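The methods section describes the discrete structure representation at length, but only in general terms. What matters is that the chain and its backbone geometry are given together, residue for residue. Nothing conveys this as quickly as seeing an actual entry. For illustration, here is how one protein appears when written out as sequence plus structure tokens:
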Amino acid sequence: MPGTLAERLTSQLLAGPPATSAVDVAERLLAIQAQDPRGARLAVRARSEGVGASDVDRALTDERTLLITTLNRGTLHMVRSEDYPWLQAVTTPPLVQWNARRLEQEGLSPADSERAVTLLERWLGEDGPLTRPQLRERLTAAGIRIQGQALPHVVMAASLRGLIVRGPMVGKQHAFALVRNWLGEQRPVDRDTARAELARRYLAGHGPASDRDLARWSGLPLRDVRAGLEASARELVQRDDGLLDLAGKPTAADVPEPRLLGSFEPVLLGWTSRDDILGENEGAIVRGGLFRPFAMVRGRGVATWRLNGNSVELEPFEPISRADMAALRRDAGGVERFLST
């Protein structure tokens, strides 16, 4: 396994000592892709020990230590609640105009969009948390057109303003809550400080990496990324291969055990290239904007997998050794236990 890949897998908690809580995983990765709820939970499973899916739900609902909202690149991410204020302040501004255009494309005028966001804020303040079906019902009754993708983009508009987040689980539904009610009043964030923190924390969970890797992951312009890296320069190491890393990180761990990873797996989303992990098999895992669950052996994707009922079914790209297949079967049992606890 190439040295850089080993270092990155160690940064990602896919090699070396595992985390012991969902919050610790979120702290290391900073932001976990979460438009697929099961995929986000499986990202925690692959990087931790002694944690079940219900522990993630508890952190989201009872402890309020994790939340999900629109951040980097305009997609849903699961983050620590204490990281939310500065991540929201630094990563959402580039998304505002795009969101406004999408609302108009969905048939909502700027006035209608503004009214919808105002109503969401009022309802969540009075009656929240509320689920998406409840918000849809109320907006429809209020005469606001929410066909197609209008509702997700109205919710996004409120999220980008820092008004709402996905807070508690209500049954199998993820309910929305006002930030000020769920997390308390938020202090103003200095964007220069936030950019520097973004650079440090990204490299903690993804280094070694380049400025373009960080720009791709965060959705920020290169000028903002480079400003954050420059502000953090004393804490970084410039490597001979041109990549950057956080100073003082532990040595890369040994080759990780064969492992099953979920959909929208963070290890495929952290850099400009996935070639070192997927190679010629990328098209079988990444297709049409979707990232399928896959099996990783010695840092390489070797199969896709799916749940058939409660059982894992593997679809290898090529023959897998008996020992590696046995290890993947054991990990499949771990997936099944995780999702049931």
